[in-house]
Amino acid sequence: MRYAEVEIAADAAHCYRLLCDIESLPRWLDSVADVQVLERDEKGRVTVARFISGHGSAGISYELVYDYDEPHRLLRWHIRESTLRELEGEASLEPLGPNRCRLRYGIHSSTLSFRDGKLHLADEPPEQAAEHFRRWAE
């Protein structure tokens, strides 16, 4: 798994709420075009969601399972169903003081896609997702 860290000028509890708002992922994560919630837990949190990554005929559908660790402000996810994708990750928020926290975002992702008549394997960089979340949270 590859990790990236970024400091955010916002409260850690607030950022954790934003991070756990799975339905808002397309607003800050460019690789996600659409989210469909499939299952929720007793607290109303998304536990399984279907995603469309990319756009048009190049889009890939996959399902992620989420695990929440509220006391540690940690969110984990892993792939449930996909034929062209391998994905697992985690994100945590560490308080650094009033209205300041650190996001640690880790991901192992391999996407298979067809380009130029060939099958390509690409890793998604965690730095990009961490920076996009920081901009959205601030």
Care to describe what's here?
- With about 140 residues, the protein is of the alpha+beta class.
- The chain has one domain: Alpha-D-Glucose-1,6-Bisphosphate, Chain A, domain 4.
- The chain contains three helices and eight strands, in the order βααβββββββα.
- The model has no long low-confidence stretch (mean pLDDT about 85).
Helix count equals: 3
Largest sheet: 8 strands, antiparallel
The termini sit apart by 26 Å
How many structural domains does the protein architecture include? 1
> What is the CATH superfamily?
START domain
Could you spell the SSE succession in H and E letters? Answer: EHHEEEEEEEH
How many DSSP-defined strands? 8
Ranges with pLDDT <50 over ≥5 residues?
Answer: none
- Overall mean confidence score, pLDDT: 87
What is the CATH first-level class name? Alpha Beta
Residues in β-strands, percent: over 45%
Helix fraction by DSSP (H/I, runs of at least 4): 10-25%
User: What structural category arises from helix and sheet content?
Assistant: alpha+beta
Rg, Cα atoms, Å: 15 Å
Name the overall outline: globular
Q: Give me the CATH fold name.
A: Alpha-D-Glucose-1,6-Bisphosphate, Chain A, domain 4
CATH architecture: 2-Layer Sandwich
Distinctive features:
138 residues, alpha+beta, Alpha-D-Glucose-1,6-Bisphosphate, Chain A, domain 4, eight-stranded antiparallel β-sheet, 3 helices, 17% helix
What is the topology?
Blueprint: E1 2-8, H1 12-19, H2 25-28, E2 32-40, E3 46-53, E4 60-69, E5 74-81, E6 85-97, E7 100-115, E8 118-123, H3 126-137
Antiparallel strand pairs: 1-7, 2-3, 3-4, 4-5, 5-6, 6-7, 7-8
